[in-house]
């Protein structure tokens, strides 16, 4: 029986890249996201290309009741999840605390922290009877440092850092591994989402430097997940060569 990975936020960026590398390595995939057309397209492509099977779960991870129902409906044989990649997340806005949009704050906290927790509660309970499993949480450099106007997004990723440590402690007795992957700048749809569709402003984030791409992060996640059973990589901070800290970048290149 092939292994199973459940990936949240599989319709774009890092989540989609993870779906590819896990499919390439023979995993069957439970793919979670909100955009149905993209989800179906990616799932069908991976099934055809790698001869794997998928389950598409159309869900907003912020909506607890719907999420519980959607996950409950997954067939029993699919609940033997080997790897959970808690990737779905976003930033909204880049404003000082006194000017921040409180709806944006709710969206970030509800998705990056509460949604991640809801998914983890369900899937860790599927892993516990198997006495095995690996949870990979996508944190950020924003969970290691705080930068100007990053306030609430940074707070959510600091929470992911704390929760990764907490999960590692609480799930130790169940032989479940927990890894935090903390990327610096990765060119995905992240900045377009942060700036609410302003593609020009999003592009400027990466102007004059070579950012990471989603495949770089998926590659690291695959490395982490493919270590022997007795080895766990607790966390990884992965930056573009042109980025030293959250805000110090070399745009000369
Ligand atoms: P993308 O915007 O490209 O992808 C985000 C994914 O999350 C999409 O598939 C989106 O799918 C999904 N998603 C967002 N909100 C929800 C929700 N409420 N319910 C379900 N799915 C949701 O960004 P990235 O790939 O860059 O981001 C992935 C993760 O990496 C995030 O947690 C982000 O914070 C983190 N990260 C990104 C960095 C970067 O520079 N890009 C750096 C450090 C960390 P859909 O809209 O279909 O639901
Ligand atoms: C995304 C990276 O630097 O925009 O988590 O916060 S950053």
TrEMBL record:
SUPFAM superfamilies, A to Z: NAD(P)-binding Rossmann-fold domains (SSF51735)
What domain of life?
A: Bacteria
Q: Provide this UniProt record's keywords sorted from A to Z.
A: Oxidoreductase
Q: Which Pfam families match?
A: adh_short
**Cross-referenced InterPro entries:** NAD(P)-bd_dom_sf, Sc_DH/Rdtase_CS, SDR_fam
Instruction: Describe the family membership recorded for this protein in Swiss-Prot or TrEMBL.
Output: Belongs to the short-chain dehydrogenases/reductases (SDR) family.
What's the protein name? SDR family NAD(P)-dependent oxidoreductase
Q: Which organism is it from?
A: Pedobacter rhodius
